[in-house]
Amino acid sequence: MSGLRRWLLWSFVGGVLFVGLFAPLLANDVPLIASVDGRLQFPAFADLIGDAPPGPNDLSWKTWWSRLDSADANDGGEDWAFMPPWPYGPLETDTMRFRAGPTFAHPFGNDDTGRDVLARVVHGARTAVSLGLPAVLIAAVLGTLLGAWAGLRGGLVDTFVQRLIELFLCFPTMLFLLFAAAFFGSSALALTSVMAALFWISFARIVRGEMLSLRERDFVLVARGLGVSTFRIVVRHLLPQVISQVGVTAAFCLAAAVVAESTLSFLGVGPNAESSWGTMLRQGSEQATIGAWHLWFFPSVAIVSFVVACHLLADRLRRREVTTA
Amino acid sequence: MHRWLLTRLLWSLVTLLGVTFVTFFVLECSPVDRAQLETVKAQSSGSFDDVEQRNEAIRQLRVRYGMIDAKTGEPLPVWDRYTAWLGNALTLQLAGPGEDHEVFWRRLAAALPVTLLLGGLALTIAVGLGLPVGTWLGRQAGRKRERVASTAMLVALGIPEFLLATMLLLVFSVVWLQWFPATGLRSNGSERWLFVWQVLDFAHHLVLPVLVISIGPFVMVTRFVRDAVARAATAPFAASMHALGIDARVVRRRLLRHGATPVATLAGGLLPMLVGGSIVVENLFALDGLGHLAFEAVLAQDQAMVMALVVLTSIVTLVALLVSDVLHRLVDARVRLTGGTA
Hints:
The complex is a heterodimer of chains A (about 325) and B (about 350).
Chain A: H1 3-21, H2 23-26, E1 33-36, E2 39-41, H3 46-49, H4 61-75, E3 80-82, H5 117-153, H6 155-169, H7 173-183, H8 188-214, H9 218-225, H10 230-267, H11 277-286, H12 293-324
Antiparallel strand pairs in A: 1-2, 1-3
Chain B: H1 2-28, H2 34-44, H3 51-64, H4 78-90, H5 101-139, H6 144-158, H7 161-174, H8 195-233, H9 236-243, H10 248-284, H11 290-299, H12 303-331, H13 333-338
């Protein structure tokens, strides 16, 4: 298939991850950098610094900023602000725009309390990515290491890892996530660890199977005969061969993590977050009967396109693997 | 075969124990204190006036739930509580302390058939449709229409169950076309109808939920079968059969057999997926199955019910894994003769 489509797929998935990781800097109602009375402030980075920013002179940042524009024209004042590319926050309400449809100023419209839907979709990506990405990374490292260990060592280690895999295979993912969400107060840490604990088996099974066949190959024997250390054989010669398989699994798991997060949020037991695609969908579907189509349409497009893009990416990697092997 | 089966059964039991222990331990680590939660609820309705009384009530509840020692008031170690739970579970007393076993079992017994019906129908549809469609796609592998169909299935797999269910509900039963009922399994007052009408009514209610649950497993089965058949179709034996001039229908049947083998192993792995699907679907369509029960248990922090559900689903999954392994050995002589790699 064409290189353009591959490029589009990679950049879409990468773009969503980027947006998710940097959401507060991309869509926010407070400035990235502001200069108030000669002092520099960084209100959008408050999450990192840990200090919630009140606006200057007890105004909200937005009010201050909007007044600033007109004042600037008059006296070229020394106060200035550098706003994020999308100057609306996920919780910022606009009382004039309850359930307003898409316009040029708000391309995705506003929800029932006047919050900008685009900003909420962007911050929903943040919730999904901040939960799913660490879970998949932990699972990939853990699963690859355990799978490689089991596949190479064989014997007792292999039996042990296989039993462990079978044990975790028994946990229905959704059920266990639901329990975790309820019994740990929907904390992001608990959900991430549970996801990692449920996803590592997919990596371990794939890597173990690959290692079983790879370790019998001649080049391993040659390397051994040349006196290459086992560690070096694994890191330099064996792991690079399974990396694309791990990538396939990671793409599938990322999609599964995003679906799991939005399902939990949809059921009302998701992580505590400013915005989530699942929560938006629940609220949107409740208001679909009164004609507010944009409330459910945009979050569902976000979920489906991201999940499908992950699946297509995985499928493409897998097909390439099949044809080159 | 007998010896293999026995070891396999034994390992399944060990796995079951492991699953219950992990779940129990994880629930123990939870910061949520059920006793405190209940007294808070009682307090808001005005039954506790002073702190002393409330603390005493919390203590009593903790003793009742087996969280602390009745005499010393020290928290019991996790291991003791797990063995206590296990002892009760072995005698099928899965209900929590101070709960009516009869009521507990009745809740489970009422919910089980609904979920079994949903899951069974979904599995039947997934395998019944996935096998022929997958075989067909496998023989077309590489052609344009196979690629289009495979991509379409990937997109279908990408739609989360809750989203699909919401859309179907909006389109077919709430907003536009009122073709299917939105909730429950029977219409009001259908008990007085003719039996035939009752069955039709039941089926009418099942269409949307079963459709939602079966899409995921169907796509999984189809993809599995497609890959297996595509691999077999390029194998030397298929080419030589063609070269020998054997009827295309016979070759097709041989290829189908290659497609059927992986399904035997896949069926066990599909069950956790079905359980997950049933949670979403039962909540959205208001069906009183295990998924609904799980959700209720979670909202009420009902540890006993959670444990019972985990045990139940693990047993079902383990049995399915066992059956699929046995099936695999029966269908595929290579596994039987070499002892299998798994």
